[in-house]
Amino acid sequence: MSKRVSSFELAMQNVGAAVKRLNFSPTVYEILKYPERELTAAIPVKMDDGTVKVFVGYRVQHCSVLGPFKGGIRFHPDVDMDEVRALALWMTMKCAVMGLPYGGAKGGVACDPKSMSPDEMEQLSRGYVRAMWPLLGKEKDIPAPDVYTNARVMSWMMDEYSKIKGYNEFGVITGKPVVVGGSSGREEATARGCVIAAREAATVLGIRLQGATVAVQGFGNVGSVAARLLHRMGCRIIAVSDSSGGIYNSKGLDPEGVCQYKKSTGRVKGYPGSQQISNEELLALECDILIPAALENQITEQNAHKIKARIIAEGANGPTTPEADRILTERKVFVVPDILANAGGVTVSYFEWVQNNTGLYWTEYEVNRRLEEKMVAAFKEVYQMYKARKDLSMRDCAYTVAVQRLGEAMWLRGWLGKGYEHHEQREAARA
Ligand code: NAD
């Protein structure tokens, strides 16, 4: 992953364009350009061999105009402040486009979870909370899982926070196991939302899902579940990959089988009956739907012109660089942008938080029904703008919907000061 260009600055380009498009006050851009709060913390962990290793942890609280901060925690060797900042900004946009009552945040720790034991992971998770707890709270900032963190990590974090407070605070974190205040359907929610977005895209483009070909980059929480759900809907999963490389079979792979294989070997490579391919080759495959579900900056100006997929549903955050985006738009690839396509996770996290706060737990059927409703409504809102404004991409439209909500909330809360005629006129027209 290239670190030469600031991911945050790249992400702000879309915000800037949306602010201009809406003819909003430049103050909206200025407010979004600076996260409200950032914390870097040292996290000492006693390793299994008795030595102490100090990890660096981050939390960025980007913008809370719509509600308490919300955003996952990533454990990965490449985590740094710029990446966490960009991910926090995307959370602000994601919550806004979905109409969720949350602001955006993100956290991370630079570490290599693959080389750590479960005990070390537990100590790191608890250490993160001990370092960050003054920022966290069910009304302040509510973390969730992200790359290489899962329900187990969330339960350690919730437990540590509860110990500090002296009472069970289930609502401080989402993505927990069901038995300790988690929501049914949360583990699959990001992928389920992504699949709904891909299905809606296929419908508007007149592509039948039955027999549609799919390639998935990244075979973790999002990618593996998306592959399984699309397979169940009749799609042919022709390729999947993880950090060790990819596998291909033109006749279709069985994602359940690949999951079992990955569970026992730790990778998808070598799955019986498949041909080995690189991640680059996977991205360039002839297919109907491509789901990038790994990390940022995977589709770049170097490979965007090779992409043959008709639909890209961005399961990952920031998989496409702005240059690549321009190329894909020119080549008429229909991109469902990350802030919409992977918003199923935060949506069900919101449902989990609502359930924690009310103490009334929903069935999986109820969770999935509400997720379906929210995803379809958000897709339709963005798509309607896309249809009406032929000069804009789906990403442009998603950012416009998000910035519109954010700008309006800022104005209504008095964050923008005087002379903001645009909003005054809108309010007058409404009255
Ligand atoms: P995960 O840790 O479960 O899986 C990540 C997968 O990507 C792993 O299979 C890993 O091997 C693979 N990978 C890493 N580097 C790769 C590379 N260079 N090429 C191919 N594969 C590679 O993480 P996840 O939770 O599935 O998250 C994946 C993406 O989805 C991230 O961008 C994350 O921010 C985004 N996302 C996750 C959630 C969620 O609820 N988990 C919600 C919204 C967005």
Structural topology:
Elements: H1 7-21, H2 26-33, E1 37-46, E2 52-63, E3 69-76, H3 81-98, E4 103-110, H4 118-132, E5 141-145, H5 151-165, H6 186-205, E6 213-217, H7 221-232, E7 236-242, E8 245-248, H8 255-265, E9 275-277, H9 279-283, E10 289-292, E11 311-313, H10 322-330, E12 334-336, H11 338-341, H12 344-358, H13 364-388, H14 394-412, H15 421-430
Parallel strand pairs: 3-4, 3-5, 6-7, 6-10, 10-11, 11-12
Antiparallel strand pairs: 1-2, 2-4, 7-8, 8-9
Helix pairs in contact: 1-2, 1-3, 1-14, 3-14, 4-5, 6-7, 6-12, 6-13, 12-13, 13-14
The chain binds nicotinamide-adenine-dinucleotide.
The site of nicotinamide-adenine-dinucleotide has 24 residues, from helix 7 and strand 7.
> How far apart are the first and last residues' alpha carbons, in Å?
50 Å
Query: Major sheet: size, sense and barrel closure?
Result: 7 strands, mixed
**Number of domain units:** 3
CATH architecture annotation name of the largest domain: 3-Layer(aba) Sandwich
Rg over C-alpha atoms, rounded to the nearest angstrom: 21 Å
Question: What ligand molecules are bound, each kind once?
Answer: nicotinamide-adenine-dinucleotide
Task: Give the assembly state of these chains.
Answer: single chain
The CATH class label of the largest domain is: Alpha Beta
How many beta strands in the DSSP annotation? 12
Low-confidence stretches: none
Q: What general form does the structure show?
A: globular
Mean pLDDT: 95
Strand content: 15-25%
Order of secondary-structure elements: HHEEEHEHEHHEHEEHEHEEHEHHHHH
**What structural class should be given to the helix and strand makeup?**
alpha/beta
DSSP helical segment count: 15
